[in-house]
DNA sequence: AAAAAAG
């Protein structure tokens, strides 16, 4: 138990400088730079005869001008002896509700072996120690491999990234090998796959994942996001890019500078797709997808993933899709039974002292010594700075991340949090979505969000890949409008709802407050086409054809933890 | 009302 940071909390803790670990190889030898993509991936997978456990050192590969080995990156927290490995730890679920709709839905698979992803990718799946596909992967991968557009709704931490990456990588190996590759540095990068995400850190994380999945396949992966110097990203782009991971702002910039072109895009994936299409982002996304040369729906394959998918956003999204399949896996949003949700009534003026009580209690209990990280969400950037400062002054090892910090500061904060150097991180919604931070045992909503979907994503930073997690919310008077949707969400997740919250929800039921999705019920989302039968005509002209018999199914999926979103 | 993303 001595491993808990809290054991040392009485002492004055100076902000520890986190041990920096290499996150990204920076140098690629000249011999590697313009290597053309082979039609046959096996050429790049000389290990297929070696055992799955054999991983060559990056040193020897660098020496031979190969990909640096992304599997060698030493994860943090190794001193605690936590073996993440496959992270298989699911007993809680027997029935995962699954909804699919759309025409001719391909059948799900039960194992990776059933799917013909190709030798190179299969080896990387083994290297990642993924044993079985997660429920969303079981359904989404066959759908994508069949070439279908997809709108997928699956719990946080359930393996969405791999679900859209595997078909892309497999498809590029299979179908794009004959593509003429530039023999020399090309000024304009022409990726065949584009993966967009709403924050820089999430794009960076996806980039790291994609590199693992495409190791030794010959596929070139690059990342582009703002806040970082342009030159390194440009250098990477000049080497040729098959899969580009990006945030919208920097991507538009690169396109307008004629350093990236979208004419050859065959695969488009939007992670956190509902966020990408909300008010703030939608114009940019529409520009990228519709006005900058990308092939139209039908000429490309489009995949949208999120844990939440309000039907207004689904309607917007259908513009980007052609004859798509809707997939919903798991219960409402994130709330797996793995996350224990608590709500406490706390007046705004009492929040800080209440937080301190909570932090002290966590020390006293000695629980979560291996799930020691605490993520505290606040509403504003200023609030994040001020709470971080207050925590530090009071001897708590805290850091903070928000959009007014410089990108190096943001990345440093995340590293320092992940490593456990500062096991408390105060964050705005910049950290609410998609980030996979192992060992987050406790998410505290110091300020609750206005939108219940944001709550779902925030608490989804814990309870990932089969690990349990705790989520505590400080509910104050200003959160009245959230009472109804919050209590409904908690009930659907089999959580105990305090009486005061129920009556609060009762009182505000006729007023504002976004109720849970139309159709309600047990699913994280419903195909909006079901409730708006004929209003969904999109530019592609594809219309929804109800096919209840084959189009709608309940799966009996046993979760085995593997990759995450 | 706020957050994010371009600089």
UniProtKB/TrEMBL annotation:
Helicase C-terminal domain segment(s): 351-505
Uppermost EC category: hydrolase
Domain DEAD-box RNA helicase Q stretches: 110-138
GO molecular function, one term: hydrolase activity
EC number: 3.6.4.13
SUPFAM superfamilies recorded: P-loop containing nucleoside triphosphate hydrolases
Composition skew (Low complexity), residue ranges: 15-26, 533-547
Coiled-coil residue windows: none
Region (Disordered), start-end ranges: 1-40, 509-547
Reactions listed under catalytic activity: ATP + H2O = ADP + phosphate + H(+)
Superkingdom of source: Eukaryota
Domain Helicase ATP-binding span(s) in chain numbering: 141-327
One Pfam family cited in the UniProt record for this chain: DEAD
Motif segment (Q motif): 110-138
Alphabetically ordered keywords of this record: ATP-binding, Helicase, Hydrolase, Nucleotide-binding, RNA-binding
Record InterPro entries: DEAD/DEAH_box_helicase_dom (IPR011545), Ded1/Dbp1_DEADc (IPR044763), Helicase_ATP-bd (IPR014001), Helicase_C-like (IPR001650), P-loop_NTPase (IPR027417), RNA_helicase_DEAD_Q_motif (IPR014014)
Family to which the UniProt record says this protein belongs: Belongs to the DEAD box helicase family. DDX3/DED1 subfamily.
Protein name (database record): RNA helicase
Organism in which the protein naturally occurs: Dioscorea zingiberensis
């Amino acid at each position: 138990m001595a491993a808990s940071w809290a054991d040392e909390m009485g002492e004055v803790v100076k902000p520890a400088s986190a041990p920096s670990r290499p996150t990204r190889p920076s140098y690629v030898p000249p011999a590697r730079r313009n290597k053309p993509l082979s039609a046959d991936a096996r050429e790049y997978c000389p290990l297929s005869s070696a055992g799955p456990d054999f991983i060559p050192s990056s040193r020897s590969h660098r020496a031979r001008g190969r990909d640096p080995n992304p599997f060698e990156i030493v994860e943090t927290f190794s001193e605690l002896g936590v073996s993440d490995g496959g992270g298989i730890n699911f007993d809680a679920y027997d029935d995962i509700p699954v909804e699919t709709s759309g025409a001719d839905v391909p059948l799900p698979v039960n194992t990776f072996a059933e799917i013909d992803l190709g030798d190179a990718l299969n080896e990387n799946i083994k290297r990642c120690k993924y044993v079985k596909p997660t429920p969303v992967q079981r359904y989404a991968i066959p759908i994508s491999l069949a070439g279908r557009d997809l709108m997928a709704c699956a719990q946080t931490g359930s393996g969405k990234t791999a679900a859209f990456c595997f078909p892309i990588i497999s498809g590029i190996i299979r179908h794009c090998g004959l593509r003429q590759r530039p023999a020399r540095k090309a000024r304009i990068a022409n990726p065949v796959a584009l993966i967009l995400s709403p924050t820089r850190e999430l794009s960076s994380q996806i980039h790291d994942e994609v590199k693992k999945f495409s190791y030794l396949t010959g596929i070139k992966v690059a990342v582009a996001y703002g806040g970082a110097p342009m030159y390194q990203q440009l250098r990477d782009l000049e080497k040729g890019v098959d899969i580009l991971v990006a945030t919208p702002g920097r991507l538009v910039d690169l396109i307008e500078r004629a350093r990236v072109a979208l004419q050859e895009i065959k695969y488009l994936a939007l992670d956190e797709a509902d966020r990408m299409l909300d008010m703030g982002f939608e114009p940019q996304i529409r520009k990228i997808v519709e006005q900058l040369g990308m092939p139209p729906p039908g000429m490309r394959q489009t995949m949208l993933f999120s844990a939440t998918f309000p039907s207004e956003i689904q309607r917007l999204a259908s513009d980007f899709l052609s004859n798509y399949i809707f997939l919903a896996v798991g219960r409402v949003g994130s709330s797996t039974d793995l996350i224990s949700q608590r709500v406490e009534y706390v007046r705004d003026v009492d929040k800080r002292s209440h937080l301190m009580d909570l932090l002290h209690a966590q020390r006293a209990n000695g629980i979560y010594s291996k799930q020691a990280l605490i993520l505290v969400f606040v509403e504003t950037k200023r609030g994040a700075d001020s709470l971080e400062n207050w925590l530090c002054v009071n001897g708590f090892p805290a850091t903070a991340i928000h959009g007014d910090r410089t990108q190096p500061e943001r990345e440093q904060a995340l590293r320092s949090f992940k490593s456990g150097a500062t096991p408390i991180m105060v964050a705005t919604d910049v950290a609410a979505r998609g980030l996979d931070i192992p060992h987050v045992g406790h998410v505290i909503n110091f300020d609750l969000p206005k939108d219940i979907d944001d709550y779902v994503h925030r608490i989804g930073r814990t309870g990932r890949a089969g690990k349990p997690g705790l989520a505590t919310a400080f509910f104050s008077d200003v959160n009245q409008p959230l009472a109804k949707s919050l209590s409904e969400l908690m009930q659907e997740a089999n959580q105990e709802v305090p009486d005061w919250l129920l009556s609060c929800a009762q009182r505000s039921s006729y007023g504002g407050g976004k109720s849970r999705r139309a159709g309600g019920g047990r699913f994280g989302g419903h195909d909006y086409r079901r409730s708006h039968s004929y209003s969904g005509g999109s530019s592609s002209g594809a219309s929804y054809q109800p096919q209840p018999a084959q189009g709608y199914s309940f799966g009996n999926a046993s979760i085995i933890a593997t990759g995450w979103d």
